[in-house]
Design brief:
Length: 325
């Protein structure tokens, strides 16, 4: 199993090789749209370099100055890569407009298309590997870098289509028009990465992560866990910090509550990738909880059990006991 560092190093090496190949294709064709693809490869290299440093820093153990670890640096790496992609897209659009106004005839179109097709296939496969591993370990950096490489691969498809149209129609302005469209697409992807960076720093709700946690709660649900509410999840690199309120029978002593909290930490955390740290506030049950409490032979039951409350993301995020559900 490859480590995040080794995957990023592989991405840097491959990006350098592909950049050289794309600039070779540009010099033999003089195509603006190929230059667009080659310029994005420079961003790939810079972005992967930032990604390597962020993964190195995120792997450092927590210390007094960083009690939650260094994982949030991955959001900075995604943000920097997003800004670079955005700026590259703007420059590409400017070059494309110039190429539309003053188009020029292209050369060696077939050879250029073959080179770009080869780089596109390699980029997509490498991007797929990074995205797959990024999802496996909850790495924002690997996901961002992998999606960027896949975006570059899709851009290469557009380049090939454009070169084919130019070859068939012998209409040079297509080169600039397609370059402009790809530039706009690149700007949009840069915006999405910057948006990811901002949402990560602001601890915006990640509903995919919440769904995983709630699925684990439901899969391991115990009668003693009468209610769960005020559920929140924060991501720090590959690690997650989960805090919530759990309602237990009010007559449980401190030792029994501790056992149940440890049980939640173990059973729920085992089914989620990466390290999960739980911060659980224990609440005593109230008589209003009896109708959905499944604890058998409860000595303090005030009302018969009537129905089970379905635990959903929306329900568990509420900051209150669920008397009326």
């Amino acid at each position: 199993m490859k480590t995040p560092k080794s995957l990023i190093v592989l991405a840097i090496i491959v990006s350098v090789v592909l950049m050289v190949a794309k600039f070779f294709a540009y010099f033999i064709t003089q195509s603006t749209v190929i230059l667009t693809d080659a310029a994005e490869s420079i961003v790939n290299i810079v972005g992967s370099t930032f990604a390597f440093y962020s993964i190195y820093l995120a792997a450092k153990p927590r210390d007094k100055n960083h009690p939650y670890g260094h994982g949030k640096v991955e959001f900075f790496a995604a943000g920097i890569e997003g800004v670079l992609i955005f700026v590259a897209g703007v420059l590409i659009c400017a070059k494309a407009i110039f190429a539309i106004i003053e188009p020029q005839m292209l050369k060696e179109i077939s050879l250029g298309a073959i080179v770009i097709a080869s780089t596109g296939v390699i980029n997509y496969l490498l991007g797929y590997i990074l995205v797959k591993n990024g999802k496996r370990i909850n790495s924002v950096t690997l996901l961002a870098d992998g999606k960027h490489l896949q975006t570059d691969a899709f851009s290469s498809v557009g380049v090939i289509v454009g070169l084919g149209l130019i070859y068939v129609t012998n209409y040079p302005p297509i080169d600039g028009i397609l370059s402009l469209l790809i530039g706009l697409y690149i700007i949009f992807n840069g915006y999405k990465l910057v948006r990811k960076f901002v949402s990560g720093l602001m601890d915006e709700t990640d509903f995919d992560l919440l769904n995983k946690i709630v699925e684990q709660f439901n899969r391991n649900r115990r009668p003693e866990w009468i209610d769960v509410h005020n559920l929140r999840v924060q991501q720090y690199g590959a690690d997650m910090h989960v805090d919530c309120h759990v309602t237990f029978p009010w007559y449980f002593d401190l030792e029994r509550v501790h056992q149940e909290v440890s049980c939640i930490d173990k059973l729920v955390g085992e089914g989620v990738e990466g390290k999960v740290e739980f911060f659980i506030h224990s609440d005593p049950c109230l008589p209003q909880c009896c109708h959905y409490c499944k604890v058998e032979n409860c000595p303090e039951r005030k009302e018969n059990y009537r129905k089970e409350i379905e635990w959903t993301v929306d329900l568990l995020m509420e900051n209150q006991k669920h008397f009326e559900h």
